[in-house]
Amino acid sequence: MTTSSTMASAPATASAPASDPLADSPLLKKRFVALDAFRGLTIAGMILVNTPGSWSYVYAPLRHSEWHGATPTDLVFPFFLFIVGAAMWFSFAKYDHRPTPAALKKTARRVVIIFAIGMLVLNGFPYVRDYSTLRIMGVLQRIALAYGLGALLCLYLKPKQLVVAAAGILVGYWLLLWGFGGADPYGLETNLPRRVDLFVFGENHVYKGFGVPFDPEGLLSTLPAAVTVVLGYLTGRLIHSEARLEDAVLKMLLAGTALIFGGLVWDLAFPINKPLWTSSYVLYTGGIAMVCLAWFVWLIDVKGYKAWTHPLRVFGMNPLFVYVLSIFWVLVLIYWVRAPAGGGETTSGYGWLYRNVFVALAGPMNGSLLFALAHVVLFWFVAWVLYRRRIFIKI
C-alpha cells in the first residue's frame, strides 16, 4: 500500500539533493526513508520477475520454485506484504492504533478498490469477454485481503495478543492442511486450499497455470499471508518503540535470524512452499525481510548513507500504481497490439518486441533478461515523472 510511513519521533530525517522536488517537502521529512527504499527495490523486483521477454528463457534465480522450496523470486511477494504491514504501523498511528470508524473505513475502502482492480481490470480486461470463466483471485486480490485481515488483527489486538494470534493462525493452518489433505497433504492436486477454492469459486474461476485448477493466491492461503503483514506491522512497532535506532536494528537482526531458522526447521515437517503460502514459508521469508530492512535502516537512517536511495525512493512513492500499470501494459501488448510475423501471420506486440529488438541485441536468454530490465527502467521513468510532479497516488 502507498500508506505514508511516518515516524513519530524519527532520529534521522531524509536528506535530498537540491534537484530533488521533495527536498523541502514536509512529506519527505516525515517519511521513513529506509522503508521507502526497501519498498522501491521490491517493486523493481516485482516488475523484473513478471516481465521476461519469454518465459522459455529465464535464468533460474528469476523463476519461482516449481513447488516446494524458495528461489530469490519467491521472496518478492512476501517482501511486499511485509512492507505493507510495516507501513501500516506508521499509518495507523494517526488512529492511535485503534479500530476507530475512520481507520475501519479507510481499510475497507482500500480492500474493495484493490480487489476490484485485480479482478475486474487485470483479470477481466482487456481480453476476457466471457465472465463465466473470470479468475476471481490474483496478486492484487491477495494483497487486498491480506492487508484487510492483517489490519483488523492489528487494530483490535494488543501486541502480545497479536503475536499469539499470528502463531495460532500459522499452527492452525498447518494442522488444517495436514489433517484434511489426504495421503499427500502438501501435493498440488490434493492440498486443502485447492479444494476450498474449487468449492467456493468453481473450476472455471480458478487459475490453471499449474496444469490443474489451483490458485496460488487462493482464499485459505490468505490466512498465513495476513501473518506476513502482521510481521511487518510488529517490525514497524519495534522500530518506533526503540529510543535508539541501533537497538532496533540489532533486535530486528536477531528476530529475523530466529524466524529464518524457525522456518527452516519447520520446513522439515511443513515444506516451505509459496503457492501454498505455508507457515514455514511465512517465517522464512518474513525473517529475511526483517533482516533486509534492518540493514536498510542501519545504512540509511543510522549511518546516513541516503544519496544512493533516490532511485529506489522514486519507485517506493507510487508502488502499487506503478505495479498495476506495468501489468496492464503487458496485457495491452499481448492482447491489443498486433504486429506482422511473416507469411501473412501476425504476432503480439509483446512477442514482436522481444524477438525483433531484444533477441536481435542479446540472444534469447540475455534478450529475455534485457527485456525485463528495460521494463524496470521504463516504469521507473513513469514513477520519476510522477515524483517530479509531486503526484503520489494512494489506492
Structure description:
This protein has helices spanning 26-30, 33-50, 76-91, 101-123, 139-156, 159-180, 192-201, 222-241, 245-266, 279-302, 310-316, 319-335, 349-388, and strands at 338-342, 345-348. The chain has 395 residues and is mainly α. The relative contact order is 0.16. It has a two-stranded antiparallel ribbon. It has one domain (26-388).
Can you summarize the main beta sheet?
2 strands, antiparallel
Strand order of the largest sheet: 1-2
Order of helices and strands: HHHHHHHHHHHHEEH
Instruction: Pick out the low-confidence regions.
Output: 1-20, 22-30
C-alpha termini separation:
7 Å
Count of DSSP-assigned helices? 13
Strand content: under 5%
Taking all residues together, what is the mean pLDDT? 90
Compact overview of the structure:
This protein is mostly helical. The protein is built from 13 helices and 2 strands; from the N terminus they run ααααααααααααββα.
Name some characteristics of this structure.
disordered N terminus, two-stranded antiparallel sheet, 395 residues, 2% strand, 13 helices, globular, mainly alpha
Show the helix and strand layout:
Elements: H1 26-30, H2 33-50, H3 76-91, H4 101-123, H5 139-156, H6 159-180, H7 192-201, H8 222-241, H9 245-266, H10 279-302, H11 310-316, H12 319-335, E1 338-342, E2 345-348, H13 349-388
Antiparallel strand pairs: 1-2
Helix pairs in contact: 2-3, 2-10, 2-11, 2-12, 2-13, 3-5, 3-8, 3-10, 4-5, 4-12, 5-8, 6-8, 8-9, 8-10, 9-10, 12-13
